[in-house]
């Protein structure tokens, strides 16, 4: 009897591992195709299609993008600054707001929660948003125009509220009896207990800030404040323009119009834009898995 149960258990485990392996392969194959395509000439991709192993190696796309390395490194610096400052500010403010809304002894918890939820349903639109940022907040050509709009989002606040509401009230009450202030309770007790939620929130927010380009497109005219994503977007537009205009100044790049790395340049930009975050993600994996169910259960 036990032998039969053990055999069924082994078969089910093998099936689970096989399904997970297949999912991993399905997820990784597009990534390898992107890396391979970035190392292949556009002509080879056009004639023979995509392959996991490049049939003809070509670093022309990377040479084109790295033609001015100082500009690329500066754009990386701007993006890293936006990501670090924005993530820290977002995690701190979102957790503080979620903690207030999770406190059952807060008398305005219902109207405050409804106010946060209401902002998820309606938006003023792009034109009022632009007027607010430029004419009232005066954030045009400021790095804060790429940070402030994403610092607090209603969805993240409600997620943190759901997680912090599961912290036992007795812990907070005992701390109050010992004379701890609200800030001391929050920073010394609540935040350490919320590490999985904070790590998950920080990872998601950092992904959003790392991919920031739309606010930069709207509000940034200073080339010293252009983030990585917008710079790569501009490079791609330049490549397409030179490829579609025979009168373009491609000779100054020592690249013939027929060999411009249009497709391979797109793939190289994906590698350069997504690579750093893929390196960072494994360090937060255990917190991310634990925090996927943040706010999903109630005690």
Structure, described:
The protein is mainly alpha-helical and 299 residues long. The protein has a single domain, classed as MetI-like (MetI-like fold, Orthogonal Bundle). Helix content is 68%, strand content 0%. It is built from 14 helices and no strands. Helix 1 (2-38) crosses helix 13, helix 4 crosses helix 7 (154-164) and helix 4 (69-102) packs antiparallel against helix 10 (195-210). The two termini are 38 Å apart. Mean pLDDT is 80; it is low at 248-253 and 295-299.
Concise summary:
The protein is mainly alpha-helical and 299 residues long.
Kindly list the characteristics that best describe this protein.
299 residues, mainly alpha, MetI-like fold, 14 helices, globular, disordered C terminus
Rg for CA atoms = 25 Å
Can you tell me the CATH superfamily?
MetI-like
**CATH class division:** Mainly Alpha
Distance between the termini: 38 Å
Order of helices and strands: HHHHHHHHHHHHHH
- Class from secondary-structure proportions: mainly alpha
What is the 3D form? globular
Question: What portion of residues belong to β-strands?
Answer: under 5%
Per DSSP E runs of 2 or more residues, the count of β-strands stands at 0
Q: Which CATH architecture?
A: Orthogonal Bundle
Total number of helical segments? 14
Helix content: 55-70%
Mean pLDDT: 80
The major sheet is characterized as:
none
Question: How many domains in all?
Answer: 1
Spans of 5+ residues with little confidence (pLDDT < 50)?
Answer: 248-253, 295-299
**CATH topology group:** MetI-like fold
